[in-house]
């Protein structure tokens, strides 16, 4: 989980200052995200963490904070493991 947070923060730092960003800061409400960046964020999460983001996952609550992103990644990984076991 810590490694996942570090990867996300590293990615975000390429677009805006993350030294003041807290893990629960809402990057959308802070005005740091536009629609193009939101698409880049989804692509980064899929590529970096090897998960598929489905339409059902495209809720702002899944992407608005570092902690929300980590929870989404963990949920998708657990779902993948569960489905693979079936």
List the defining traits of the structure above.
0% strand, mainly alpha, single chain, 86 residues, globular
Shape: globular
What's the number of extended β-strand segments? Answer: 0
Please work out how many helical segments DSSP would assign.
3
Which runs of at least 5 residues are low in confidence (pLDDT < 50)?
Answer: none
Beta fraction: under 5%
Q: What's the story with the biggest beta sheet? A: none
Gyration radius, rounded? 13 Å
Mean pLDDT: 91
Helix and strand content put the structural class at: mainly alpha
List the topology elements.
Blueprint: H1 2-13, H2 35-49, H3 66-85
Helix pairs in contact: 1-2, 1-3
């Amino acid at each position: 989980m810590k490694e996942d947070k570090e990867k996300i923060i590293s990615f975000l730092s390429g677009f805006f200052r993350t030294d003041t960003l807290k893990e629960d800061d809402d990057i959308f409400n802070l005005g740091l995200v536009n629609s193009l960046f939101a698409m880049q964020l989804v692509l980064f999460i899929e590529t970096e963490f090897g998960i598929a983001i489905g339409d059902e996952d495209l809720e702002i609550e899944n992407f608005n904070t570092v902690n929300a992103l980590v929870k989404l990644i963990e949920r998708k990984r657990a779902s993948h493991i569960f489905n693979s076991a079936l």
